[in-house]
Design goal:
Layout: E1 5-10, E2 13-18, H1 29-44, E3 50-54, H2 66-71, H3 80-89, E4 95-99, E5 102-104, H4 106-109, E6 116-120, E7 124-126, H5 140-148, H6 150-157, E8 162-164, H7 165-171, E9 176-178, H8 181-196, H9 200-212, H10 215-233, H11 236-256
Parallel strand pairs: 2-3, 3-4, 4-6, 5-7, 6-9
Antiparallel strand pairs: 1-2, 7-8
Helix pairs in contact: 1-3, 3-10, 5-6, 5-10
InterPro entries: ClpP/crotonase-like_dom_sf (IPR029045), ECH/Chromodomain_protein (IPR051053), Enoyl-CoA_hydra/iso (IPR001753)
Organism: Pseudomonas arsenicoxydans
Keywords: Isomerase, Lyase, Peroxisome
């Protein structure tokens, strides 16, 4: 069985690339588990100094694989997606995201935990949790209002509005904007090498200081969100919305002759 996340190591930089192009890099439980394991291993590896996460030059991730999500929903706080959240929030080494194209759902909330976020102009950041009858996750209900203010956070979380790359940089969800995917990926590697050139222990301790004040509140918020997420997923609202999307996808494949 092939891995759905590619690994590339280059002089202390570990690049993790979602590699499921036929599903627009939609994340399933297997990918959540693999990503968490790779991040844990990198954090303990003395030869790894910086981690880059990307979906390649075309698409970051379309979010949860809805079919897998409905067949194998999270049932407790140790479910694969929730375990990944714990791993990311406890990560000791710098994490850079190179976002080209769509970053939906957890594809956007993950960015709130990265030290630097680079995006392309055609990036599409969207968190359609309410639209799907669900609730925010990964601490978004805490971190987004702090970053953007209540009104802007509400537009993204209540309405599910999307942001392109330029808008993401303008509001502070991303740091740098690039015209295309190759430029974005190359810039992420350059930024990682700049971090590697710095005193590493000082770098990690400073990163820890940046995060430690908000960590207890963040962990409590993520736990609360996840417990509610499990309940919301069982609700008639969520079941109706998610199944409607799956049915539309199946209908489209039938019309084009694609296998479902």
């Amino acid at each position: 069985m092939n891995d759905l996340i590619k690994q590339e190591r280059n002089e202390g930089v570990l690049t993790l690339t979602f590699d499921r192009p036929d599903k627009l890099n939609a994340l399933n439980n297997r990918m959540y588990t693999q990503l968490a394991d790779l991040l844990l291993a990198a954090d303990e590896d003395d030869q790894t100094g910086v981690i880059i996460v990307t979906g390649g030059a075309s698409c970051f991730t379309s979010g949860n694989d809805l079919a897998d999500f409905l067949q194998h929903p999270p049932t407790d706080l140790d479910s694969p997606a929730f375990r990944l959240m714990r791993v990311v929030t406890h990560l000791q080494k710098p994490l850079i995201a190179a976002v080209c194209g769509a970053a939906i759902g957890i594809g956007t909330t993950l960015l709130l935990h990265c030290d630097q976020v680079l995006v392309t102009r055609n990036a599409k950041l969207r968190m359609p949790f309410v639209n799907l009858g669900l609730c925010p996750e990964f601490g978004a209900s805490l971190l987004l209002p702090r970053l953007l203010g209540h009104a802007r956070a509400a537009r993204l979380l209540l309405w599910g509005d999307s942001l392109d790359g330029a808008a993401a940089v303008a509001c502070g969800l991303a740091n740098e904007l690039f015209d295309d995917g190759q430029q974005c990926l190359a810039a992420a590697q350059h930024m990682a090498r700049r971090l590697l050139a710095l005193p590493q222990e000082s770098l990690r301790q400073t990163r820890q200081l940046l995060k430690q004040t908000s960590m207890p509140e963040l962990q409590a918020t993520i736990r609360q969100e996840n417990l509610l997420f499990i309940k919301r997923l069982k609700s008639p609202e969520a079941q109706t919305a998610l199944n409607a999307i799956l049915n539309r996808s199946t209908d489209k494949k039938s019309l084009t002759g694609q296998p479902s």
